[in-house]
Amino acid sequence: KNLNKLLIRILLHLQVEFSSSVFAVVLIIAIIYILMQMKHLRRSRQLLEKLNLKLSEANRIKNSYIGHYLDATFKLVNQLDNFVLVGQQKLDSKQYDSLSSMIHNLNSDFNRKSAFADFDRTFLSLFPTFVESFNSLLQPDDKFVLENKGALNSTLRIFALIRLGITESEQISEILGYSVNTVYNYRVRTRNKAVDPANFEKDVRKIGL
């Protein structure tokens, strides 16, 4: 700012003292060019700062999910190793009823419902105000009211994935176990309830920034 003021003062001085001079005209053009470049540099710096914030936020999400799911993966591997070992022993000793019970318990441990609950907890730990921010994008009569504050419903889970950058309906359907048409219908139905339907999903991706 101080440099801007100095350049403007020089510019005004030159206009008064050397208005008929070719040299003054050249200096005036040079100063105008410098001011324009400074303005451009300020804009570039602001853009760079915004990009750095986005990168920091992306790294925070990535590191959190990598740490969480590495831990979950190793726990699963250990449980499966133990299942194979004990299951083989029961099979060798013909304990079929006990083996059947083990298989049932394993299936219960890793069903989709528990996977959803795990995802919800992790996501909401990263974006604790997601539901509130999401509701602010909707019409007053269409806001979501959740009985369990620590869990997402189907619609919110779809848009949670969109917030994480997973925007293809096919990929969302594979993750959540819904049909592609179901995901598409959820997205369209919710978008139509938005205050600004045209920019709704773009606004969702900005939640937490």
TrEMBL record:
Entries under Pfam families matching the protein: DUF6377 (PF19904)
Residue ranges constituting the DUF6377 domain according to the UniProt record: 19-173
Name assigned to this protein: Transcriptional regulator
Origin species: Bacteroides xylanisolvens
Parts of the chain that traverse the membrane: 12-36
Keywords of the record: Membrane, Transmembrane, Transmembrane helix
